[in-house]
Write a structure and sequence with these properties.
With 261 residues, the protein is α/β, with parallel strands linked by helices. Helices cover 38% and strands 23% of the residues. It folds into 2 domains: 169 residues, P-loop containing nucleotide triphosphate hydrolases (Rossmann fold), CATH 3.40.50; 80 residues, no CATH class. Helix 3 runs parallel beside helix 6. The structure holds adenosine-5'-diphosphate and magnesium ion.
Length: 261
């Protein structure tokens, strides 16, 4: 295990929604280069953690250091610029728009001239547009070569797994240091999920080992691809270790039994 300073240090995070503590004094580290599984029963605070980390919600208390930046209080765009990107539990693709449009929207801060739709005719913009096309092609070439030829087809014509690939590509366009994946298996079969994760791991190797945090219910997948797991229950961390360690932990078993009951 690395002795380096963690990439992310979350300390004493609390997120209140009225009387509910979705995160309850949560502290955890994310290590540079790892694939970390974030587990826990439904409603245990996993997505809320992503939302706090990416500035969608502002924590009621606590701090998050990312490299040398304090994230709490920063706007989502500023956090994105520090190198944190995510996918969502529910798809955020715009189905009538093309693959290209959907992916470039994820990267619009790189288009120095602002929202490109309005500036389509400017020549300075056209140069950026051409660069964006090249960049999307290059990323898709690594991620899913068959998609390259379909760059200007609407997303609604694609299968679920290709839509997920497009969402991951969108997140990767900002060349993040940290990639947050919120239940990428949602709506897919077991085989499709495995295929998608293999693609993600392959891309990860080629993109200088982006650090990945994966929220996932498919335990098979967690066992196969994570190096470490953190388990949440009622917004608290109840376990932190390898897949084997956390699944053998009685507190984790109880938390999941509670969900089954
Ligand atoms: P998980 O992703 O682990 O299933 P969430 O982080 O989505 O859980 O939710 C944790 C808890 O916080 C749940 O009880 C959920 O209902 C609550 N919660 C999440 N977001 C909000 C919100 N915007 N307003 C009120 N309650 C919320
Ligand atoms: Mg969730």
């Amino acid at each position: 295990m690395s002795t380096h300073k963690p990439l992310v240090e979350a300390r004493d995070l609390t997120m209140r929604f009225g009387g509910l503590r979705a995160l309850d004094n949560l502290s955890l580290d994310i290590r540079e280069g790892e694939v970390l599984g974030l587990l826990g029963p439904n409603g245990s605070g996993k997505t809320t953690f992503f939302n706090v980390l990416t500035g969608v919600y502002r924590a009621s208390a606590g701090t998050i250091r990312f490299n040398d930046t304090e994230l709490i209080g920063l706007k989502p765009q500023a956090i994105f610029r520090t190198g944190i990107a995510r996918t969502f539990q529910r798809s955020r693709l715009s189905l009538p728009l093309t693959v290209f449009d959907n992916i470039v929207i994820g990267d619009y801060q790189h288009l120095r001239h602002g929202l490109f739709f309005n500036l389509f005719r400017r020549s300075a913009f056209r140069a950026e547009y051409a660069r964006a096309v090249e960049e999307v092609r290059a990323l898709l070439e690594i991620f899913s070569p068959p998609l390259v030829d379909r760059l200007f087809e609407p997303v609604e014509t694609f299968s679920m797994i290709d839509r997920r690939r497009i969402e991951v590509c969108r997140a990767l366009m900002g060349r993040p240091k940290l990639l947050l994946l919120d239940e990428p298996s949602a709506g897919m079969t077991h085989d499709e999920t495995n295929e998608l994760m293999d693609d993600i791991l392959e891309v990860r190797g080629k993109l200088k080992n982006v650090t990945i945090v994966l929220i996932e219910h498919e335990m098979d997948l967690i066992r196969r691809i994570t190096e470490r797991c953190i388990v949440l229950s009622y917004g608290k961390k109840i376990a932190d270790g390898t897949y084997e360690e956390i699944t053998a932990d009685p507190e984790v078993q109880t938390a999941y039994l509670g969900e089954a009951a």
